[in-house]
Design goal:
By secondary structure, this protein is an all-alpha fold. It is built from three helices and no strands. The longest helix is centred in the middle third of the chain and has 21 residues. It starts with a helix and ends in an 11-residue tail after the last helix.
């Protein structure tokens, strides 16, 4: 218990501030992904989709085409 109190005393971040920092990092990551114009997604998605469809466990398709 003393160890827990000591850890909390050393940390200056509240749970709310940690959540806010994580949300900001996530937003930055998503912005980076959305700004990507490398064409990687367009090249890889058809192969990935085909592999997912070929290895599904049910007869129902996973994607509507």
């Amino acid at each position: 218990m003393t160890q827990t109190i000591t850890r909390r005393a050393r940390s200056s971040h509240t749970p709310e501030s940690l959540a806010r920092m994580k949300a900001q990092k996530l937003k930055k990551l998503l912005d980076t992904w959305l700004a990507d114009e490398s064409g990687y997604d367009e090249r890889v998605w058809p192969r990935l989709k085909k592999a997912i469809e070929e290895n599904r466990l049910s007869s129902r398709k996973r994607f509507d085409d």
